[in-house]
């Protein structure tokens, strides 16, 4: 894949890509990926992407499925990595070193109607931004990176240092004459989240929000 501009669904014209400061232009994005199915329920995937002069991204995934008590158990290990090319401590220097998100997933199907999921993630994202982002450009809808971990409120669990465990269950109502309907619930527990590092002590200071002095 290669591209030098994008169009968000709510825009009518094409837009350029920019770094985090919304001023420094990114001339192009490109990526390459591969997937190999061993035809024995083992699948390997890998990919690499770049935002010119700004971000490198990496992806690897191994998936394996086998039967437990006559029902399929799907498992995977996933790695998502990203590294910025800016090292001046400015607003575009979003990570200190390589940031990553790793995940282990387990999915079990019972009686063809009940799906159970147990998943865990671990994030490292030292630096100013303070969280892992799978996109190669920061503006929402400007680009989109792959992330197979999908929970409700997923973006709440990508902070630096954060570990999270997810459990979910979904029941298919097809045996109750309600094809296409399913009901479920999920729970997430997370810990060890850390804040980002400010580029300067006054990074979040805005004089427009300062209380004005008055003689009264």
UniProtKB/TrEMBL annotation:
It comes from the Bacteria. One of its GO terms (biological process) is oligosaccharide transport. Belongs to the outer membrane porin (Opr) (TC 1.B.25) family. The keyword Cytoplasm does not apply. Keywords: Signal, Transport. Signal peptide: none annotated. Pfam families: OprD (PF03573). GO terms for molecular function: porin activity. It comes from Klebsiella pneumoniae. One of its GO terms (cellular component) is membrane. Transmembrane segments: none annotated. This is N-acetylglucosamine-regulated outer membrane porin.
């Amino acid at each position: 894949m290669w591209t030098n501009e994008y169009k968000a669904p709510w825009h009518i014209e094409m837009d350029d890509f920019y770094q985090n400061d919304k001023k420094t232009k990114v001339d192009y994005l490109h990526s390459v990926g591969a997937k190999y199915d061993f035809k024995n329920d083992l699948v390997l995937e890998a990919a690499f992407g770049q935002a010119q002069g700004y971000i490198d991204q990496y992806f690897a995934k191994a998936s394996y499925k086998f039967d437990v008590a006559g029902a399929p158990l799907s498992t995977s290990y996933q790695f998502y990595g990203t590294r910025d090319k800016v090292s001046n401590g400015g607003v575009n220097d979003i990570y200190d070193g390589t940031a990553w998100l790793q995940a282990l997933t387990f999915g079990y199907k019972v009686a063809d109607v009940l799906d159970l999921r147990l998943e865990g993630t671990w994030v490292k994202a030292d630096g100013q931004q303070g969280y892992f982002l799978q996109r190669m450009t920061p503006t929402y809808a400007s680009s989109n990176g792959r992330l197979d971990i999908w929970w409700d409120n997923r973006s709440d669990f990508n902070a630096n240092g954060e570990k999270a465990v997810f459990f979910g269950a979904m029941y298919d109502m097809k045996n109750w004459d309600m094809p296409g309907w399913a009901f479920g619930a999920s729970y997430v527990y997370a810990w060890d989240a850390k804040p980002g590092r400010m580029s300067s002590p006054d990074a979040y200071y805005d004089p427009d929000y300062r209380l004005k002095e008055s003689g009264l």
